[in-house]
TrEMBL record:
Matches recorded under InterPro entries: Cof, HAD-like_sf, HAD-SF_hydro_IIB, HAD_sf
UniProt keyword Hydrolase present: yes
NCBIfam families referenced in this protein's UniProt entry, alphabetically: Cof-subfamily, HAD-SF-IIB
Presence of keyword Hydrolase: yes
Record organism: Sporosarcina soli
Protein name stated in the entry: Cof-type HAD-IIB family hydrolase
Keywords annotated in UniProt: Hydrolase
A single GO molecular function term of this UniProt record: hydrolase activity
Length: 259
């Protein structure tokens, strides 16, 4: 059997909307591995936000920060950091507009405000045992792969016009990811594909959100979750059932990877 590689988003794809891993999803992942396939993660999350999931599913290859920090078999193979000068300017504008910013690298995250209800709401929605400490100068002395800008839709459009160095991707009603312009899960995935030399027909991807659109568009064998964003479903070749209704298992059957 020809070896395949399958990339899975986490939130709303592997995890249901309560941030739980459905039993059928976990079993499906191990069934893929038993068949000799490579299972990888492609997420907007920071690496330190999904270590438990990596351990539970025995996965050592992932694309994190929407493509900005890529690890293959436990070793970093690609990094793409934010423009520091532009991030300093963005922070100045955000402070004036009372929009909190969280700074993130591969090991930690810090906030430029000590307490803010929007930061609490956004971070707690991820249901992780991690919260950014206060360090308003963290972005000046560290290589960062993503920031979180807390503002309501469609305010990020104004930031997009002012800061062409960045892409802004909404993931929460109160927050957007700030990533290097042109960076995406698709570009991060390509770093792993180049390393492996796998033919495009043997690459698969599952996702549900706006930050999955380019990945689902680029990869031919792409599957969107049934309860995913309409743009993700429009981008994918296949649409499976909802994440909590055995969506991963059904999607893998749909593309012929599992019986």
């Amino acid at each position: 059997m020809t070896q395949k590689i399958i990339f899975f988003d986490i939130d709303g794809t592997l995890y249901d909307h309560d941030k739980k891993l459905p039993p059928s999803t976990k079993q499906a992942i191990f069934d893929l591995k038993d068949k000799g396939h490579i299972v990888a993660i492609a997420t907007g999350r920071a690496p330190f936000m999904f270590n438990d999931l990596l351990d539970e599913l025995e996965i050592d290859t992932f694309v994190s920060y929407n493509g900005q920090y890529v690890v293959f078999k436990g070793e970093p193979i690609y990094t793409n950091s934010l423009n520091k000068e532009a991030l300093v300017r963005l922070t100045e504008v955000a402070v004036e507009r009372e929009h909190p910013v969280v700074y993130m690298n591969h090991e930690d995250m810090k906030a430029n405000t000590p307490d803010h209800e929007h930061v609490s709401a956004g971070i707690h929605s991820l249901k992780i045992d991690y919260f950014p400490n206060y360090d308003p100068g963290y972005h000046e002395n560290n290589d960062l792969y993503q920031s979180l800008l807390f503002c309501k839709d469609p305010v990020e459009k104004e930031y997009e016009q002012q800061f062409p160095e960045f892409d802004f991707v909404r993931w929460h009603p109160l927050a957007v990811d700030v990533v290097p312009v042109g960076g995406s899960k698709a570009i991060g995935i390509q770093q792993i594909i180049d390393k492996l030399g796998i033919h495009p027909e043997n690459i698969y991807a599952f996702g549900d959100g706006l930050n999955d659109v380019e990945m689902l568009t680029t990869i031919a064998n792409s599957v969107a979750m049934g309860d995913g964003h309409k743009d993700a479903k429009n981008a994918a070749k296949y649409i499976t059932t909802n994440v909590s209704e055995d969506g991963i298992l059904n999607g893998l059957k749909m593309v012929g990877l599992l019986d």
